[in-house]
Amino acid sequence: MTAERPVNLRLGPAALNGLMPMHVALTAEGRISSVGPTIARLAGNQPLVGGWFFTLFEVRRPGGVLAMRDLMARAGETLHLSFRPHTEIGLRGLALPLATGKGMVMNLSFGIGVTEAVKVHALTDADFAPTDLTVELLYLMEAKSAVMNELRALNRRLDGARSRAEEQALTDTLTGLRNRRGAEAELARLVATGQPFGLLHLDLDHFKQVNDSFGHAAGDAVLSEVGRILRSVTRKGDTAARIGGDEFLLVLPACPDIDTLTAVARRVLSRLQKPVDFEGQPCRIGGSIGLVMSADYDPADVDRMIADADAALYASKRAGRGRATAGGPGAGGVDLSAAGA
């Protein structure tokens, strides 16, 4: 039985480039005799043919491959290299001697650095051999990236929709203030965190007459204006809420004392004295206010505070309206109208 004689294959440049678009052919001295089109693309305007391989490429592993005799000794082994103009992109290679014994041919690939190489050099599937699994990898990566981008966009839309729904659930549509649910949520948060706060309960005076005289559209215009007034007298972090037809709450965290809360009440009452114009008709209203401070309660009890503020508010109405009254433990329904309310 005779051994088969090896076939001496000769490939022209076009065939070699088609099979191995990332090849580098070397002379026995170590000069580059030809490169595949993808390697040429990486080099850009830098000429490679005729250059010294070990000047243009660095063999990082295995160590000690510094000349052709070292490369010959490592024939058939996996090489880890870098192309000196782009040392940030790692390459893998396999070098084998030519049948003539005069030089070597090395086939290169990007390995795990393919994504960076594709991005940096704008490579396409035409830059890889048709049988190279890199092409499939690129397609999978593009598909995954597209899916992940769509999922992220969908999550952003869902988060935005959820945030808008939560905001709408806590907002009074007419005035843009918080609604009763929003006010209760803020009060519960302040009590849970132990933050002191002042509570102002406002009920509009003469609002029924506006509705009866000019209609509900006029009433809505008045309520909208009250919303603007309450926003203008509150600070960032305060909460203004419409909790009923013509009832409002102001929640003022870190309010230091009843005098500060009273000053806010006086500003509100002063602004409410100005008639609201509706289609050329002046709509005149006023307000009655009850005030309580969380520091007067041990512990702070939201339901009791609201009840005490409500009782103080009706004390203001009984006293003639257009005034503010302090309520709560020890306040005794103190009329604050003399302070300028």
Automatic annotation (TrEMBL):
InterPro entries referenced in this protein's UniProt entry, alphabetically: DGC-Regulatory_Protein, GGDEF_dom, HNOB_dom_associated_sf, Nucleotide_cyclase, Rev_trsase/Diguanyl_cyclase
Pfam families: GGDEF
Entry coiled-coil feature ranges: 144-171
Boundaries of every GGDEF domain copy: 195-329
Keyword Flavoprotein found: no
Region (Disordered): 321-341
UniProt entry keywords in alphabetical sequence: Coiled coil
NCBIfam families for this protein: GGDEF
Protein name: GGDEF domain-containing protein
Annotated source species: Neotabrizicola shimadae
Lineage, opening ranks: Bacteria, Pseudomonadati, Pseudomonadota, Alphaproteobacteria, Rhodobacterales
